[in-house]
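Figure S7 source data.
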Amino acid sequence: MPEDHFGPGVAERFDDRYGYQADPAVVDPMVELLAELAGGGRALELGIGTGRIALPLVRRGVPVHGIDLSEAMVAKLLAKPGAEQIGVTMGDFATTRVEGVFSVAYLVANTIMNLTTQEEQVACFRNVASHLGPRGAFVIEVQVPRLRRLPPGERFQPFDVSPHHLGFDEYDVARQGLVSHHYWIEDGGVEVLSPPFRYVWPSELDLMAQLAGMALRDRWEDWQRRPFTSESDKHVSVWEKP
Ligand SMILES: C[S@@+](CC[C@H](N)C(=O)[O-])C[C@H]1O[C@@H](n2cnc3c(N)ncnc32)[C@H](O)[C@@H]1O
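Tokens for the predicted S-adenosylmethionine complex:
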């Protein structure tokens, strides 16, 4: 089982720190696309967390099941109204099996990068494929690796500089790894978190899908389905089972 980087301290503050991601302007287009892909069937969320997407998706009438390895994050989800309609299986989403067949599986907010080896990321695609029915869809939202922004010889890149949070990534290009360093300045103290990730290229994800018997159906720059271009800094990709 991979290490849990979402322990009680992180879970306690997660919804406050990332509240902007729960804004309806962010969530509504995500739910819209996922409900469309579910098409009356079930949805599987990998890394369901505190239910930012699962809860509004259930309210939209889509049955959702989630996988997560953090007891603390899932406890936060289960304390929310509407959570009684969501099934949760504890485990690693690269390998954990859930009963039944799904129309759509989704892995958002860069969470594929929480799997820190290529083998685990490939296993995740294979695991998803084994849960999908014919024409089932797998959706990933993830950043495009930001190496073009890294000056030659540098390995640190800031992604948030604000009075309450300093965040910067530390790249290990040889390993295709990065560590996201967070300095949270709250209540007169500083909390430092440094979870590890593996960044992954769009074409590499397509190859992982191919290994798992799926093919790219759509790739957009965002949930509003704007075209993916050379300037896009993230993508929302949909692979489909035959
Ligand atoms: C950034 S949070 C995102 C939560 C939710 N999907 C959202 O968009 O708000 C990532 C979640 O994925 C879970 N997670 C990370 N790696 C995992 C793994 N290998 N297996 C299962 N859950 C994992 C974490 O515990 C956490 O709850």
